[in-house]
Amino acid sequence: MNNSRIYLSPPHLGTREREYVDLAFRTNWIAPLGPNVDQFERELAEKVGAKGAVALSSGTAAIHMALKLLGVGRGDRVFVSSLTFIASVNPVLYEGGVPVFIDCDAETWTMSPQALERAFEEAHRNKQLPRAVIVVHLYGQNADMDAINEICAKYRVPVIEDAAESLGTTYKGKSSGTHGKFGIYSFNGNKIITTSGGGMLVSDDTAALSKARFWATQAREPQPHYEHAELGYNYRLSNVLAGIGRGQLELLDDRVAARRAVFDRYKRAFADIEGINMMPEAEYGYATRWLTTMTIDPITTGCTPADLLERLTEANIEARPVWKPMHRQPLLQYYPYFPHEPGSSVSDTLFEQGICLPSGSSLTWDEQDRVITCIKQTIQMKSRRMSHESA
Ligand SMILES: *Cc1c(COP(=O)(O)O)cnc(C)c1O
């Protein structure tokens, strides 16, 4: 039997990437600036419907720049989704800010407007309103931005959308990442499209984007002698990598369709297994299913997510638990947290029961068969054992 490694979300390249990279070589634009960077910014802004975009070395750098643009500094509070990857939070700490974590809801797995409202009410009472809110669109599903924007507008707090996992997603017909003051995308190797490493900051505020571009280029003043009046960063994207990005961007719609097809097949395969529930798709949007995620109820199935992950690992299949919530990370556990309902944390349950399955757009039919078979066999074995034990 074929036992080659099946990855969670490997890069999936087309043919045009090479042409744009060759262009950089031919014209000797091997620099963190150049025509591929300019074009990639323009093409991405157009694709998502934003007025402008700044290509950066990572999605993390893009979040950092967005926070700087909103003036987040020492002691400033920033509300952030708790169920996410650490990169949503680290830039808050770079600036000496205080993250306050907001739970998700079970319907979308993204920021719970209910928890957000409670966090704002308390912050208002204590005169500690946040300077920004970072909303994460998890696993390619958009958060309910109308509800979230309404709450944030009431308190006049700007929103940053962490759309690192949701490029290609729409919310009420409009691109993920274009519903707040700033949006950020990531082109890390495991994302839906990749430049091997890279990110993008988008906004309709083109003056702010110019400022980010300036900071990201070592805050170099327009003087021939390298004049510096502000603290800067080396955050620009290389012109070579931007070439990969241009080729990848042309394929985005195909990649989204492929990931959705992967999800649909898993969903059909597990439809009759009681105790497995796929991550729901909110009816207001179009999710990319960047990763297929599901929960497994150990009581109904007799199988814990850890059992399943162990079997998948043995079969040389890469799978992962759902993100460990930020409020449970040793680095971050002492910061405030607002669960969906007092005493009832949705992200904790999702972490305990959720797993992410191989979801790449290049996953073959046979590879997906292997994953499905492995999961079905494991659950059958465990449930048989469970019925023996109870007999
Ligand atoms: C990948 C990711 C990021 C960070 O992007 P990098 O390009 O790796 O810095 C930020 N937020 C979320 C939710 C991510 O999944």
Automatic annotation (TrEMBL):
InterPro entries: DegT/StrS_aminotransferase, PyrdxlP-dep_Trfase, PyrdxlP-dep_Trfase_major, PyrdxlP-dep_Trfase_small. GO terms for molecular function: transaminase activity. Keywords: Aminotransferase, Pyridoxal phosphate, Transferase. It comes from the Bacteria. The keyword Transferase applies. Belongs to the DegT/DnrJ/EryC1 family. This is Aminotransferase.
